[in-house]
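Dear support,

We are seeing what looks like truncated structure output for some complexes. This example has two components. We would appreciate it if you could run it in full and send us the complete token output so we can diff it against ours.
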Amino acid sequence: MALLEIESLEFGYTRQPVIENLSLSFAAGSATAILGPNGSGKSTLLKLLLGLLRPRKGTIWLDGMALPSIPLRQLARKVAYVPQVHREAFGYSVFDVALMGRMPHSSLFSRYSEKDRDAVREALERMEISHLAARPYTQISGGERQLTLIARALAQGAGVFVMDEPTNSLDYGNQVRLLERIGNLSADGFTFIFTTHHPDHAMAIADRVVMMQKGRIVRDGAPEAVIGPETLASLYGLPPGLFAQDAGRHGSVPRLRRAATL
Amino acid sequence: MSVPEVALPDRPHQAAEASSPAAAVGSRLLHIARGAAPLLGSALLLAATMLVSLSLGKYKVSLREIALYFWQRWVGGNAIAADRMALLNGVLMEIRLPRILAAALVGSALSASGASFQAMFVNPLVSPSLLGVLAGASFGAALGIVYLKTWFAVEVATFIGGLAAVMLAVGIASIYRNNSTIMLVLGGIISGALFTSLLSLVKYLSDPFNQLPTIVSWLMGSLTLTDRSMLGKVSIPILGGLLLLLLLSRHLNVLSMGDEEAHALGVNVRAVRLLVIFAATVVSALTVVIAGTIGWVGLIVPHFTRMITGPDNTRLIPASMLIGAAYLIVVDSIARLAFTFELPIGIVTALVGIPCFAVVLRNARKGWN
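Here is the complete output from our reference environment:
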């Protein structure tokens, strides 16, 4: 059985459904990119997966348990949310931000233990940002913030990382560095589900691409099979032929360092 | 298939770290000391403020005599004559100490609830009155002064008024089935405006020769009415509320990152938010019971404290309590000593606080981000 299984899901903020009869399953260790135009229901799907929204119909199963029946803290120990970087926030130290990942491991009125701090140190180490531990979260670069949020998810102990447009608002270099880290974690066995507006990012680190349109899945498969000139044109409503393979211009596409296991 | 646990591979440098436990313990102690220093400093500041304030007043008592008095009272000896002891007992224990303790309670309650609200609403300009507690309590007090017979009943009406205003604000927010903080703020604005109008109505209907002056001077804030029996009544619920805020300070950090993230970190956002509102409301309403409405403390003290401790609420909340207590003792000492007559403390907190705030604002971003 798959790690995460979505069964005929329906959801809408108003009577108009945003997501309709959607079924999808995610295997452990997979990296799935969700592509789709604005308003196609990508972010809503992520919120449903995180239990932030309750589906109108259908069920989401995690490890064979229906989502609403999983206690909040237990869910947080399995599924982590890596949001887009914050613009407005308090200047908590990077260490303190990552320490928040230990919330689901402690009871209501307890304090963080030395074990919690050790988990944070390891997570920062793994993201190679130990040197930033004491820096205010608001005074580091967008890329470093995103790594901090991933470190927090690692400290959380979750195996599934849900990311909403992780490369959004990062500069080109930070996008590449971030994708590399995600690729490495994915190779280590973490499950990734992320939305993106960059087909090339999906190509770089996903082993599966799901295309969404108007709350439905229109294509689902290996990146090489799903992403192509015609599918992209029809997904985003662009004139066919726009993505001609040979348009007479050459770009640079980074070749990411991938872990040896891949 | 199950979710993989985060089993991180062993790394060579970890073995190296483990090989020098002394260094690890040292750095850990340094970390603890760094975290504890602001708290220890604030606690010392509070103790010193209390001691000095105890010696100040129309009747001069030197610090040395205060020390001797407490020594004789608790340990023994007969350095001070019996009639002098009785006099000191009256001045220090019956008059000054209750008032100092009341100032300390009010200061820490307003500062802690201000700091909590600032974290929860992710806004540095928020004060404890955001959800209408002070307006509601003022209305309750005025209503009590006009229509109720005993002073105790007035105190109860004050407390209930504060609670009712916040319940209205939370109720308005929840009518719209929306848990967002914006709806709470709007609910607070509505509730605050309503109770302010009701207060005006009570003032208008009150007897202008006896009741109105009482209401007006109450609203300016004063610690003159505090005595030991009142302290006994309010101190336990205030300390309980403060303890609750201390225990929730970790959650405040998480809540300030946004509702969705807090939820995804396993925090029951709605329950924690209601708990924080409840604790902050109880302690703020009780400050009105003790001393009437005292403004600015809940806004300024957390700001100032944040510059020392940084924004981490597990340090900010306790330090705000200590510094807020010391601040209000200082302000109350000014209120009772600066002139031959006593100034309402609410006016002094504003007159002292506003210029301080204007100066501090320059560096405020330091603690904020």
